[in-house]
Amino acid sequence: MNPDKLQYSLAKxxxxxxxxxxxxxxxxxxxxxxxxxxxxxTATQQLMLNAQTGERLxxxxxxxxxxxxQYYYLGNEPIxxxxxxx
Length: 86
Prior knowledge:
By secondary structure, this protein is of the alpha+beta class. The chain has two helices and three strands; from the N terminus they run H-E-E-E-H.
């Protein structure tokens, strides 16, 4: 992936999220995304943005987590259990 080809630039991300740290560009299935952290007084908020539009992506719910597991898992076995890791 070439970060120069992203429609939503790193400069825009930093303009709208000036406290962003640990910024990474990657894929979520076929979608280009930015992943980053914003520290607060009590915790660090983990965020993900669509790297083409800048839209904030919702935290993963169970349905999306299962879809991602099925997308990335190369085996033939079905998913039998889903657990939230914190």
